[in-house]
Design goal:
The chain has helices at about 5-25, 30-35, 60-75, 90-110, 140-145, 155-165, 165-170, 175-185, 190-195, 210-220, 255, 265, 300-310, 320-330, 335-345, 355-360, 415-420; strands at about 115-120, 130, 135-140, 145-150, 230-235, 235-240, 250, 275, 280-285, 315-320, 350-355, 375-380, 395-400, 425-430. It is an alpha+beta fold. Strands 7-8-9-12-13-14 form a six-stranded mixed β-sheet.
């Protein structure tokens, strides 16, 4: 086959896959107002050099994960623990952004190359475009007609492309172009394999919010729909969750409302950075305290495994799974021993084993690796949700109380969300209470 025919086949394949991805993202009826809410570039705050600005509701499903990876890279840098974030030069922040995008693309990559979305500015139909080339606003159909893909082999090639063509990211459609790059790099076949329900669009057709599958894809490289650990069988259906410890964590107010269960792989990530979810928005929590994510102690592993058999968060398990818990922890699980310990831990023969009794019996001498006091920082990309209507990090000082009992404060969503990770946390914010919305 000639190179011209090969190139034509590649273009046709890209067009076909882009059409499928457009349908998966927006459903059949893409509303212009939803599309325009997502039409923004990656832009930094004028008062917080490394903080991205979100102009309207919706694109936080991409912007918050990108911000989280940017902060992860910054905290990992040699000067990350001593650096004054307010003193970061603009060129370093641009490079941090590019590095964050490369990390996300690398996690999503399913084939042998990266597929980077670009926009052909030369108009094919001038009637559907408004404005000049600089800051051009296209109608949704015109935008998608102008999309094309650039195939790059190595991550370093992607880094160089974005460095040499930063306007692809900072221009009017930077966020959308990156999202399409992630989806095309992942490939529609892989996305459909991982999704539980391909009939539901990845972006809400009315409100423009990203689905959990889109958030998970940006954070982990897998477009699964759930946030629990591993897969769960529910009524014969295999519902896919997070399959390994995540680089970036995720906690959500929705767990406190019992809408979902966030597993240990998300709550205890490799880096002290968490995307935080409210009912309608995503923000980012982070800390310089690396001990918040130090390797799990034996007691922490035990708590995680015990909780995996307690999906409703009751702090007890039925005796019927006691042997399985022991086996998963590589403890003695012979029937005779299990029977003896079960009688000891359930003396009243209630058919349940309390987590505290279990931990006291098997891991009484283990200490928690998490420090009692630490600082937390919070990012919200919506300017109107920040003091002075300018996006900037908010700092707080946290302390973990000795009591296992947690106070309920439904009027404080931030505090309630933090409690899903640290049930006994108290925190004093240095300026004002940051918003999850």
């Amino acid at each position: 086959m000639s190179s011209d025919k090969t190139s034509a086949c590649t273009v046709d394949s890209d067009v076909s896959e882009l059409r499928e991805i457009k349908k998966l993202l927006w459903s059949e009826n893409l509303k212009p107002d939803v599309f325009f809410r997502w039409s923004q570039g990656f832009e930094f705050s004028p008062v917080e050099p490394s903080a991205l600005v979100q102009k309207q509701g919706g694109p936080c499903a991409v912007i918050a994960p990108v911000q989280a990876y940017l902060l992860k890279i910054l905290l990992d840098s040699e000067d990350g623990s001593t650096l004054d974030f307010n003193e970061l030069p603009a060129d370093r922040c641009r490079q941090l952004l590019i590095d964050a995008l490369c990390c996300i693309l690398a996690k999503a990559k399913s084939g042998d190359h990266f597929r980077i979305a670009v926009l052909n500015i030369e108009p094919s139909n001038t009637e559907t475009a408004t404005g000049s080339v600089e800051g051009t606003q296209f109608q949704p159909d015109d935008f998608h007609e102008r999309l094309s893909m650039k195939n790059l082999q190595e991550q370093e090639d992607v880094r160089k492309f974005y460095t040499d063509n930063f306007s692809v990211l900072s221009g009017s459609y930077g966020v959308l172009l990156f999202m399409y790059s992630v989806l095309m790099t992942k490939a529609i076949e892989m996305i459909n394999t991982e999704l539980s329900d391909t009939s539901e669009p990845l972006i809400h057709s009315t409100y423009g919010y990203g689905s959990q599958a889109l958030i998970n894809l940006m954070l982990t490289g897998r477009a699964v729909s759930y946030v629990w650990d591993n897969d769960q069988d529910v009524g014969g259906l295999k519902l896919r969750g997070i399959n390994q410890q995540a680089e970036i964590g995720f906690i959500t107010l929705m767990e406190q409302m019992r809408y979902c269960t966030v597993g240990s792989f998300y709550k205890n990530p490799k880096n002290p950075v968490w995307v935080m979810g409210s009912e309608t928005h995503l923000t980012v929590l982070f800390s310089h305290e690396k001990k918040l994510v130090s390797p799990e102690t034996k007691s922490e592993i035990a708590r995680r495994i015990f909780k995996s058999y307690d999906p409703d968060g009751n702090n007890f398990i039925p005796c019927s799974v006691f042997a399985d818990v022991l086996k998963d922890l590589e403890l003695v699980s012979e029937p005779e021993y299990v029977d003896i310990m079960q009688k000891k831990l359930d003396p009243e023969n209630l058919g349940i084993i309390l987590m505290n009794a279990f931990m006291d019996e098997f891991f009484a001498d283990q200490t928690n690796s998490v420090p009692d006091t630490f600082d937390l920082m919070h990012y919200n990309g919506i300017a109107g949700s920040n003091e002075g209507n300018k996006v900037q990090y908010c700092k707080g000082s946290a302390i973990l109380l000795e009591s296992d009992l947690k106070s309920m404060c439904i009027s404080n969503p931030m505090y309630t969300c933090l409690q899903t990770k640290w049930p006994n946390i108290e925190i004093n914010w240095h300026t004002r209470l940051p918003s999850l919305n």
